[in-house]
Amino acid sequence: MSWTPDGITSAVRRVSRRIGLPAIGPHTLRHTFASRLVMAGVDLPTVQQLMGHKSIAMTMRYAHLSPDHKRAAMELLERRFAGASPANFHNTPHSPSLLAEKKMQAIG
Fold first, then answer.
1. Stated pTM of the model
2. What are φ and ψ of residue 43, in 5° steps?
3. Domain residue extents for the chain
4. What's the CA gap between 56 and 49, in Å, rounded?
5. How far apart are CA 24 and CA 11, in angstroms?
6. What is the pLDDT of residues 25-64, one digit of tens each?
7. Alpha helices of 1-108 — where are they, by DSSP H?
8. CB 48 within 8 A of CB 39
9. Residue 81, by phi and psi: left (phi above 0), alpha (psi -120 to 50) or beta?
10. Spatial separation of the C-alpha atoms in residues 53 and 45, rounded to whole Å
């Protein structure tokens, strides 16, 4: 194997076929590396530095989240906020119907 970009790409593709994977190259491994780091909870600036990217935008192009990871994030949010929010919670939207209901309860 020669230590050139073409030599490394050829070697990675040869090995991937030998172990029964589709022929992949180093670029695919970079996407996998970035994605796995993000899904493991590593922050984007750290992934950016590890990848050698000049911008977060480039890092985000490499870091793909799996559907399972997205689903788990939504389930985490749902578990966190499943209970009733306190009335003074700063992110609770002020629903007109809720305000009207409270006024009716105060009157009646």
1. 0.59
2. -70, 155
3. 5-81
4. 9
5. 10
6. 888 889 999 999 998 989 999 999 999 999 999 998 888 8
7. 5-18, 26-39, 44-51, 56-62, 67-80, 96-107
8. no
9. alpha
10. 10
Max intra-chain CA distance, the chain: 85
Q: 42-62: b or e for each residue (b if 16 or more CB lie within 10 Å)?
A: eeeeebbeebebeeeeebeeb
Most confident of the ranges 29-43, 67-81, 86-100: 29-43
The pair of three-digit structure tokens given for residue 108, joined into one six-digit string: 């009646």
Residue 101 has pLDDT above 80, yes or no: no
63 burial (CB, 10 Å; 0-12 / 13-18 / 19+) is buried
Please answer whether residues 44 and 65 qualify as being in contact, where contact means their C-beta atoms are separated by less than 8 angstroms. Answer: no
What DSSP string runs through 92-105?
----HHHHHHHHHH
Amino acid found at 10:
S
Burial group, residue 87, by CB count within 10 angstroms (0-12, 13-18, 19+): exposed
